[in-house]
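Usage example:
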Amino acid sequence: SGAVEEAVPVRDSRAATDARLIKTENNVISAYETAVKERHSVAAQLSDWGEATGDDMVSDISDKLGVIIAEFAEIEDWFASQLEDSRSVLKHIRNIEQGVQPCRDQKAKVIDRIAHLRHSKPEAPEIVRLEQELVRVEAQNLVAEAQLTNITRSKLKESYQLHFAAVQERAEKSIILAKYGCKLLDLLDDAQIGPGEMSQGYEGEGAARQTLVECENELARWKPESEQMSDEGSL
Amino acid sequence: SGAVEEAVPVRDSRAATDARLIKTENNVISAYETAVKERHSVAAQLSDWGEATGDDMVSDISDKLGVIIAEFAEIEDWFASQLEDSRSVLKHIRNIEQGVQPCRDQKAKVIDRIAHLRHSKPEAPEIVRLEQELVRVEAQNLVAEAQLTNITRSKLKESYQLHFAAVQERAEKSIILAKYGCKLLDLLDDAQIGPGEMSQGYEGEGAARQTLVECENELARWKPESEQMSDEGSL
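Running the assembly step on the lines above writes:
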């Protein structure tokens, strides 16, 4: 990876990387939120477009495809909110790290003072007092660093567990929607009509509506694998 | 749906709805392309951040999580390109519709001239000639309208078949990545360490690397259901 290590203490580099990561994750979320908004527009406009063709079959199917697209948008919206939750968990790490900084600063200050006195007044009684202070401050630092290590590991894990669970749910629901979208397309009879042939009156509206109903039902029944397994366990 | 029908011929409304739909779909694609770019940044920055913690376990796991995130970005990039292909198919419809417009205009013009002459010079021999022209022009229009109907239905179907196939592939590959992402997280030992405890030397690098290798292999083996079924058929 590309972190430039100069004579900069690792903590500055860490604060900088924290800030960059959290900011960029926000950019990801914003991009998905834009996609959501635009997909909702596509859903409505697809319906308008279909109606404007004056072809009853195209009008009905495109209207219902619009419903499917709107459902996709809802899932992406939920996904973006899960990314936000995941990002918030990482912010905990940054907060703890900011809390540890004063400890580190205090330790550095005591070390500096000891070094300075050893150089200028090596007999000063203050050195003994400072050395005792250093022992206490180092103990505090060890606790703080252990806390930071523990928080970092557990929050990194928690953040990405949220992230991957959201990916999974979004994917499984997308598969359901795509399946019913394809069933709608099967109702679109694209057999060629000849000039002047009145295409047979469109009679697929009921079947198309039923497809949407079944889609909604299957989405409503969806549950994460862990819940499915505990359902089976309790049967 | 919300198309306003005034004294505007349906063809104007259709051209307007075509244009809006195609434009908005472009906005969707741009939003996903932005998400791709930002997710690639997150992947790199996650790795940098992990290295900056100075914790070998966190550094290794976050680096490998970064690889997973970069793979997600690749899938989204591919998905955006499929949306672009799907959108291009719809543009065919608009092109055909634009080609039909001259026919419609010509028919309207002949009808207007006949009406004008019937009002001003009802005995004009030109009326008979124009009526014959109208018959030919109407025949041409019937062919054009049938072509448009056929193209509209088949391209709508083709466009959304592409779209839903892309949704399906993106979803199935996302599930694979999330699964291996979770396996990486399982290697992240978040058992609490106490102050001053040297956390045991991190020895998970091999297991983590192997997890990524297995992930890459499973992604490479992925194929659409239709190909899987034909494989089984040929066994």
